Amino acid sequence: MLTYLLVGTMVFSVLEGWSPRDALYFCVTALTTVGYGDLVPTSSAGKLFCCAYLGPGSGGLSPPRTAPASGGRAVRYC
Predict the structure, then answer these.
(1) In angstroms, rounded to a whole number, what is the distance separating the alpha carbons of residues 49 and 8?
(2) Is residue 1 classed exposed, middle or buried when 0-12, 13-18 and 19+ CB atoms within 10 A define those classes?
């Protein structure tokens, strides 16, 4: 996750001309779906990267779900 944040920080800093601190702040608020709206990508490249960055970042990087609590056995509830 740290690598993902660092990559996003670098890319947004370059594409949008933000300071690294502002770019990191944007990445954290966007990935946690807080999105205050004080920083938004304005360039076309920044908007496209934002779509590609937030898709996997907001849910795709979460750990995979394991077998159900039943240990993977079929459970009947009737």
Answers:
(1) 9
(2) exposed
